[in-house]
Amino acid sequence: MAGNASLSTALSVLPGKSQTWLFDSACCNHMTPHSSLFSNLDPAPHPLNIHIADGSTMHGNSLGFVSTSNLSVPGVFHVPDLSYNLCSVGQLAELGYRLIFYYSRCIVQDPRTRQELGTGPRVGRMFPVNNLHFPPVALVSVAAAAAAVSSLPSLALWHSCLGHTPSSRVQQLVSRGLLGSVSKDNFDCTSCQLGKQPALPFNNSESISNSIFELIHSDVWGPSPVASIGGSRYFVVFIDDYSHYSWIFPMKSHSEILPIYSNFAKMVETQFSKHIKTFRSDNALEYTQYAFQALLHSYGIVHHLTCPGTSQQNGRAKRKLRHILDTVRALLLSTKVPVPFWGEAGLHAVHAINRIPSAVIHNQTPYERLFGSPPDYHHLRSFGSTCFILLQPHEHNKLEPQSKLCCFLGYGETQKGYRCYDPVSHRLRVSRNVVFWEHRLFVEISHFRSSLTNSSVLEIFPDESLVPSTNTFDPPLDFSLDIFYASPRQVADE
């Protein structure tokens, strides 16, 4: 410190470790030995090894936010063996801030607003920090950058993995320790705002059930002007009144509800040793047809129908449809996945919704309410993200790539694997050998075909049993999201 007598004198009068902060261009991270300066301090996922000039090494194992009267800086490492507080010039520059060193002082500036964020005088040949405060908007981006550096999954990532659920629900799961270590950054989701903003809320209905499968709510959505890649234009949803657990089944025609419900009732008996006691729906023709009524009577199930013109009496099912469609819109908007994949987005949405806490059931998840134990969240992945599927040995030779770039769409229903779209062979693959790049959308790296028509379904589902019939009255497919703003099918209330 030769030639810096004034600063050296100022530091020497302080016992032990210095409280002064210094701008340092050779320091890769902000760091301090004083734990008392942190407003929050969390363990770092990877220790920071610091090599100093004499060849020795120091270690930093904690990362947090420093907040004092003249300093507000996130992403600061706690290094107990350090003697000085160091403000990294490189870390500030990496976050996009401008540092200007003059003969007599140094300033930190936001180049977008030209706002002065911090200053420091020149003392000898060093620049101590007088003050440094980031604006509120900048703090969010800085915290996000610090989270990325520390490799902790963010609230925004879990928000995406859980089907764009409200951040308050993600916070509940974090507070219960079910998601592991998560960086506590704030975020705004434009896709949720565009896809979920409601007009007026529905009135809440009171549950009358005391156990699972005493009452099942149901409703059908459709027809969709755009067929899904599997040829479906409808879907039916069943909701258990006690647990709020939901099941969704795509349908090519609303008449398919008869075999779907028959299989669903048998599944309840086999898997849960329960019998459905009451079935509630509106007066749509698929529910009032003789064959469906006879099926309910054969199981001894009481059928509750809404009064004419009062679909609000089936409010729970209506709200569930809105929740599913809101989530589907958010998934498609945020990932730019084409609309013909709405069926996959619906299955993904319900898988996530069943694992989200609900205030109506005392902040438990529907999964926990139905099965008696909390769900596992570590298999969840972000819809529409980039993934790589390991190819089978017969699909490549020794000189060709061993994996294939795909778009993640959901989870296997009957297989323990992930459902991924292959843009080259134009088909869905189900595999457990998948590597994910969840911070990269598939559309950022590759692309979908310009259009998906009924004639191309063979390419996506080569199994003939899965190929939908081609209807001459089907409108041409497009990628407009307007289909999700159309009202559900007309209900005959006579």
UniProtKB/TrEMBL annotation:
Gene3D superfamilies: Ribonuclease H-like superfamily/Ribonuclease H. Keywords: Hydrolase, Protease. InterPro entries: GAG-pre-integrase_dom (IPR025724), Integrase_cat-core (IPR001584), PolX-like_BBD (IPR054722), Retrotran_Ty1/copia-like (IPR039537), RNaseH-like_sf (IPR012337), RNaseH_sf (IPR036397), SH3_retrovirus (IPR057670). Residues 197-374 form the Integrase catalytic domain. This is Integrase catalytic domain-containing protein. It comes from Vitis vinifera.
